[in-house]
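Quick one, probably user error.
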């Protein structure tokens, strides 16, 4: 299994400005709220994949950024860090509450899950695919499942390959 590259460089913990980190996290949470506001009821498979991929990328970035603060809070635990950490928890809780109650996002994941039933037996027969990056699995499954998915698969696989290149 190849690890996915981090979107953030390895933090230089001694050079981190705690207030700037707080602002960066707040900005990212706002971006996530904007992303949630833009989620629409799934229109088709490609639209659903795009929505999930955007949300997935946001969550990876948030996890990396908040992970820096969380790590610092665990190992340094200064009054300033505690104040920043504690002040962000309501914002984070608010975001994930809204994400958890977003009907369109739920419907998007459900739409993809419903499509997954078609592919489940295929995945179980090829366990090696579990070690492949998600986009490779999706491309492989769409291209080999049904002719109806072929045009979508070609567009998705080419567009994700171009994004990652």
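Nope, works fine. Designed sequence:
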């Amino acid at each position: 299994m190849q690890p996915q590259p981090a979107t953030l460089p390895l933090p230089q913990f001694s050079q981190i400005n705690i207030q700037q980190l707080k602002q960066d996290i707040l900005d990212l949470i706002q971006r996530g709220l904007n992303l949630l506001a833009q989620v629409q009821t799934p229109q088709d498979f490609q639209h659903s994949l795009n929505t999930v991929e955007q949300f997935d990328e946001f969550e990876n970035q948030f996890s990396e950024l908040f992970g820096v603060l969380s790590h610092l809070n665990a190992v340094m635990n200064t009054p300033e860090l505690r104040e920043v950490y504690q002040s962000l928890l309501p914002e984070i809780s608010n975001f994930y509450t809204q994400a958890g109650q977003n009907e369109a996002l739920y419907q998007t994941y459900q739409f993809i899950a419903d499509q997954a039933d078609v592919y489940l037996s295929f995945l179980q027969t090829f366990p090696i695919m579990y070690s492949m990056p998600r986009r490779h699995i999706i491309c492989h499954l769409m291209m080999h499942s049904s002719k109806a998915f072929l045009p979508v698969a070609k567009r998705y696989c080419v567009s994700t390959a171009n994004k990652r290149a």
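Confidence is low (pLDDT under 50) at residues 123-131.
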